[in-house]
Amino acid sequence: MRIAIVGPVFPYRGGISYCTSRLASELGRRHEVRISSFSRQFPKRFYPGGDDVDPTLASRTPSNARFSLDVLNPFSWIMEALAIRRWRPDAVILVWWIWVWAIPYLVIRKLLPRSTRVVLQAHNVGEKESARWKVKLSRAMLSVADALIVHARSEENEARARLGDTAPPIHRLFLPVHEMGGAAVDRPEARQRLGFSADETLVLCFGHVRPYKGVDLALKAWNRVRRPARLIVAGEFWWDQEALCRRIIEDEKIEDRVHIEGRFIPDDEIALWFSAADLILAPYRSEAQSGVVMTAFHFGRAVAASTVGGMPEVVEDGVNGFLIPPESPEAIAEGVNRALMADREALERGARESAGKYSWERYGCAVETALGAGSEVDSDR
């Protein structure tokens, strides 16, 4: 097949770019793949962190990627749509995760022949910080696809609720393991390199700190964690989250039990932070599926995660981690207590087994089904 993929790839930061790059590589083993990526991914005001490019990923930029789409330049949308049209793909994958690309994607879809099969790979059907106009934009985007790929039952239900009888075939797949950061590092070496002692217990909250991530809830829970443990918050703060978190740390008097690494963690450091940890904590208020969880499995680390979105579909209580009721510092503390008192070696063995279960090879085959078939499939098991 000829497959055109429209979405972010390396050297852009984050899990979506990783997934698009890795999917292109997987599909490229059996098909001819063309990537349309971005010269400008977001208007600056909608990306309140720092630069959205990770220089450590420059060498992993896909050679078949065109960085031609500017979110603020409609001419670039038209020209790239026409270039895709001239290439005459059998299928086009639009990578969907944020409302700002709704209008550009709608223009691209309008300029492609109706006979071109367009599949929307929806990392988020809904919005992280919702508003009625965002809902309308995303619904318009969902409605023009010939098929949807989602990564959780909750996302499938959300798509059906938004589209009703007009919903296209929906392919519910698993989110594959995130092999970000390369190979694991021995735990003692990782701790030494990061400046932590070999014998302390470390719990990691990783990634952009945004309201839906629930880091503030974890901080409020920390005085209830019975075992001496240090909470590491490693990631870039958005909006007012740093001031909020530091205020909670001061109010709770947990300065000696928390380490704030308030910056973007580049790909070449990811292995250190995950390898140093005893447990990965994902206390989300909402989320479709979590790249942090799938990265934890790659490094063989157990996860304590909220029972939101697709988390209960991949985090198996007592096997590769523990599930926590959302929005409750008390429940977070209890979940962390259970995880830290459990058999760490058994949990980490379960995490490594999960990494194998949610492989990119299986995912690539399932995506091929979505590209070439009109019937619905369920490939999360």
End-to-end gap: 26 Å
How many beta-strand segments? 14
The major beta sheet can be summarized as: 8 strands, parallel
Q: What spatial order of strands do you see in the largest sheet?
A: 3-2-1-4-5-6-7-14
Structural class: alpha/beta
Kindly state the mean pLDDT as a whole number?
Answer: 94
Sketch the topology as an H/E string, one letter per element. EHEEHEHEHEHEHEHEHEHEHEHEHHHE
Roughly what fraction of the amino acids lie in strands? Answer: 15-25%
What ranges have pLDDT less than 50 throughout 5 or more consecutive residues?
A: 373-381
Choose one word for the global shape. Answer: globular
Topology:
Blueprint: E1 2-6, H1 14-27, E2 32-40, E3 65-70, H2 74-87, E4 91-96, H3 102-111, E5 117-122, H4 132-143, E6 147-150, H5 153-163, E7 170-173, H6 187-194, E8 202-206, H7 215-221, E9 230-234, H8 241-252, E10 258-261, H9 267-276, E11 279-282, H10 291-298, E12 303-306, H11 311-314, E13 321-324, H12 329-341, H13 344-357, H14 360-372, E14 378-379
Parallel strand pairs: 1-2, 1-4, 2-3, 4-5, 5-6, 6-7, 7-14, 8-9, 8-11, 9-10, 11-12, 12-13
Helix pairs in contact: 1-14, 2-3, 3-4, 6-9, 7-8, 7-12, 10-13
Structure notes:
It is a single chain. This protein has 381 residues and is an alpha/beta fold. 39% of the residues lie in helices and 18% in strands. Strands 3-2-1-4-5-6-7-14 form an 8-stranded parallel β-sheet, with helices on both faces. It has a 6-stranded parallel β-sheet with strand order 10-9-8-11-12-13, sandwiched between helices. Helix 3 links the parallel strand 4 and strand 5. The radius of gyration is 21 Å and the shape is globular. The protein starts with a strand and ends with a strand. The C terminus is likely disordered.
